[in-house]
Amino acid sequence: MTPDGYDRPVYCTVFLDEAFSNTAETVSRRVLRVFRELHIHVNLITPYKNLNLARESARSLLIAERDQENHDSHLCEVTWEEIDRRMGEEKEKKLSDEAADLGIELEKLT
Prior knowledge:
Layout: E1 13-17, H1 25-37, E2 41-45, H2 51-57, E3 61-67, E4 72-78, H3 80-101
């Protein structure tokens, strides 16, 4: 991986497309740590379920979203705070929907 006379690889970027979808988290963390120690810039292409791994390795996020009705897609740069807000809203909606299915009405706390 490293040419003669170099102490690290001469290339700097690796793209990992769903590389950790079927891998134990400890193994994934170890792989990401190796990339960091080799000063390799990692681009993780991963579903939301693996965002915790990205949080430990990424300073910024680009989210690709697709409108299934119109078949349009777009990229947006988001912060970790925005991700936390979005995921909180999704969790709240899911809980609200489950409660409604059980005939339970929830009130928002202010």
